[in-house]
């Protein structure tokens, strides 16, 4: 009996123990492992644009998330997430997560468990540091020939906008003697300490945060004698070698030459060809190798008169002149090229009126006509106050092409002329040539240069009372041998209110369409109306006079080569921002910092606040050198083009738009460059859209 009672008590005790332990065991099973608190161990700034933070591994961590903020602010910003086996991370400055030299930043790290999606505690105080500009690498310090000045040069440093030049002697401490702004990398000390060793160094400086970089404490040493050059002999400049002469305009002549030795200035002279007396035109600095003489009251240039030019080198210190070319170089100007406006067939189809813009440097206009069966023939001579002419006897049944030359009769000089001319088909007598509606046509682009690409081509506004847009055609002359019409969908251009009719937009008072030829050249674009018998199936009717009536509406347009003009634009930037002697890298950086970074006028394409994607505006369409718009796709492509032309190849970091540096390029050393403007520079409110007002046309 006692044995049974003991067995029963043992079972009851076991049940109580099991029941008592069950809640605690279940709770332990439900608890999610939480990573431990990250212990930060160090922070450093290895470069002007990099900060490295280090930590010890925490328990239960599969990843670490790195955060930073400006010291003194409250909001942490995520920088990166790294694997759980990492114990350091280097943050490199980017557009989205910038590091400004001199600005203090605080960093912290959280441990994270990706399986249970739990975070550990983190150091709320963090670790703080700041970067500073790179140390300047000195190149050379050289004494001038006259022993009176010293030229110091150095390599470009990163992360600064100024360079501070210091000088000392063996018996004095460093003293700042000058500040120069980036991108200059040289300085001339015109007052060195005579009779001693002059030691120079350069320190980088970033003015917004008042932070200096490290510097070369040894510096560069130059010994300066007690007195300057002992020679009392006067220095005479060398003979100027003339290289080229040209007449870029009716009232301008440009002379170019090669530099002469010992020249501080150059004096330019001219005279009428065949005369003996030279007349002084101008004096320019010794760094100049060309001069453009513009006609004035005291120094006139007469159109057609031949002039000889020469140049003397001059030394202002010794007041000495070099020898010069007594023969000189000779050129003459001619009237400006006449810019044609249009050629219009009269309503009765019996006469043609050609009109043009006024040209400079002429007192007469010579009007010429040709057709497929004959060459140019002068048909009229007019005073320069007249800018139109009506040909009462055009050749019927064929195309009549007209052009105009500027002419200056006192010197019997003709200007250049438009060889393509303006063309009009003149029907034979009695042909059915009456259009039913009235038309005008205008180009409505903001920018008046057009290229053979879609976003740089002309937009045409056809003002008409014709309700049927499908019956309207545009005829290009001469034949462009390949013409593309862009479809303008409703709502594609946000500043254009209209409805789609075929490939055009029906707008207030008419229609808007866009064409562009692949072939460059000067074109006359005419509005034509499909004849009634072809309206049942207008898709098969082209713009020829077999299918169409001619109208009085026409406009001229010049189409340029986009790629060729782009290369010319880049070469112009290289000429503007670079100097002889620069390395390819220095040239590349001079162009991108000078044109696109420092005080840039470029902006991001237009976007509407609260909407996704670009908001295309018809009035903003044009080349990037016209509308000054760049995005994360066009800007790295442009940098690659600039690098290729300079001879400093760079490549895109990534074509993947999700990559944080997809807007950048990288050089062979691993340095990143980006000129993509911030997105906010293109943002506008929807109510700020300025719609095109066609009533002004």
UniProtKB/TrEMBL annotation:
Keyword Electron transport (UniProt): no
Q: Where is the signal peptide?
A: 1-28
Domain Fibronectin type-III positions: 34-134, 236-336
Spell out the SMART domains in the cross-references.
FN3
InterPro entries, alphabetized? FN3_dom, FN3_sf, Ig-like_fold
The record's listing under Gene3D superfamilies reads:
Immunoglobulins
Question: Which positions, given as ranges, span the membrane?
Answer: none
Query: Keywords, A to Z?
Result: Signal
Q: What is this protein called?
A: Fibronectin type III domain protein
């Amino acid at each position: 009996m006692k044995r049974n009672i003991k067995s029963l008590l043992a079972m009851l005790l076991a049940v109580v123990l099991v029941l008592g332990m069950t809640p605690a065991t279940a709770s332990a099973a439900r608890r999610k492992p939480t990573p431990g608190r990250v212990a930060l161990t160090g922070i450093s700034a290895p470069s002007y644009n990099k900060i490295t933070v280090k930590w010890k591994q925490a328990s239960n961590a599969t990843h670490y998330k790195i955060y930073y903020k400006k010291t003194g602010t409250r909001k942490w910003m995520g920088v990166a997430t790294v694997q759980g086996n990492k114990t350091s991370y280097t943050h490199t400055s980017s557009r989205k997560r910038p590091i400004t030299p001199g600005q203090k930043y605080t960093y912290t790290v959280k441990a994270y468990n990706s399986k249970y999606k739990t975070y550990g505690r983190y150091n709320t105080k963090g670790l703080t540091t700041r970067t500073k500009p790179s140390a300047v690498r000195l190149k050379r310090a050289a004494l001038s020939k006259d022993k009176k000045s010293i030229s110091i040069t150095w390599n470009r440093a990163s992360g600064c906008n100024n360079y501070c030049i210091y000088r000392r002697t063996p018996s004095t401490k460093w003293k700042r003697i000058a500040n120069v702004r980036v991108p200059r990398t040289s300085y001339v000390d015109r007052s060195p300490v005579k009779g001693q060793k002059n030691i120079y160094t350069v320190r980088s400086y970033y003015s917004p945060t008042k932070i200096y970089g490290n510097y070369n404490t040894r510096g560069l040493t130059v010994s300066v004698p007690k007195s300057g050059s002992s020679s009392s002999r006067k220095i005479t400049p060398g003979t100027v070698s003339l290289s080229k002469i040209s007449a870029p305009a009716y009232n301008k002549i440009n002379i170019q030459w090669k530099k002469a030795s010992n020249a501080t200035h150059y004096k330019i002279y001219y005279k009428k060809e065949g005369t003996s007396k030279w007349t002084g035109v101008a004096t320019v600095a010794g760094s100049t190798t060309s001069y453009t003489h513009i006609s004035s009251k005291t120094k006139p240039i007469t159109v057609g008169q031949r002039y000889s030019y020469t140049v003397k080198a001059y030394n202002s210190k010794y007041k000495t002149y070099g020898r010069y070319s007594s023969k000189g170089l000779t050129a003459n100007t001619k009237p400006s090229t006449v810019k044609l406006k249009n050629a219009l067939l009269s309503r009765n189809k019996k006469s043609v009126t050609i009109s043009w813009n006024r040209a400079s440097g002429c007192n007469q206009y010579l009007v010429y006509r040709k057709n497929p069966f004959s060459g140019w023939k002068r048909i009229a001579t007019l005073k320069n106050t007249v800018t139109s002419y009506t040909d009462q006897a055009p050749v019927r049944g064929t195309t009549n092409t007209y052009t105009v030359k500027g002419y200056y009769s006192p010197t019997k000089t003709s200007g250049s002329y438009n060889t393509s001319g303006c063309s009009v088909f003149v029907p034979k007598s009695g042909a059915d040539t009456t259009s039913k509606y009235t038309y005008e046509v205008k180009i409505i682009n903001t920018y008046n240069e057009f290229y053979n690409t879609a976003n740089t081509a002309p937009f045409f506004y056809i003002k008409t009372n014709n309700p049927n847009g499908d019956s309207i055609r545009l005829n290009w002359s001469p034949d462009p041998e390949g013409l593309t019409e862009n479809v303008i969908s409703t709502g594609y251009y946000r500043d254009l209110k209209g409805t789609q009719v075929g490939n055009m937009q029906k707008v207030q008072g008419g229609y808007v369409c866009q064409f562009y030829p692949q072939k460059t050249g000067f074109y006359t674009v005419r509005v034509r109306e499909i004849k009634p018998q072809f309206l049942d199936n207008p898709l098969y009717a082209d713009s020829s006079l077999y299918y169409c009536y001619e109208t009085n509406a026409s406009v001229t347009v010049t189409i340029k080569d986009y790629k060729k003009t782009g290369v010319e634009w880049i070469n112009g930037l290289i000429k503007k921002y670079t100097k002889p002697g620069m390395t390819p890298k220095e040239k590349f950086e001079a162009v991108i910092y000078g044109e696109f970074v420092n005080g840039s006028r470029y902006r991001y394409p237009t976007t509407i606040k609260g909407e996704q994607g670009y908001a295309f505006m018809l009035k903003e369409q044009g080349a990037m050198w016209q509308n000054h718009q760049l995005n994360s796709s066009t800007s790295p492509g442009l940098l690659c083009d600039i690098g290729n032309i300079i001879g400093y190849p760079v490549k895109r970091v990534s074509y993947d738009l999700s990559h944080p540096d997809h807007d950048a390029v990288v050089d062979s050393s691993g340095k990143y460059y980006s000129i993509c403007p911030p997105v906010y520079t293109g943002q506008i409110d929807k109510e700020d859209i300025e719609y095109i007002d066609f009533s002004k046309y």
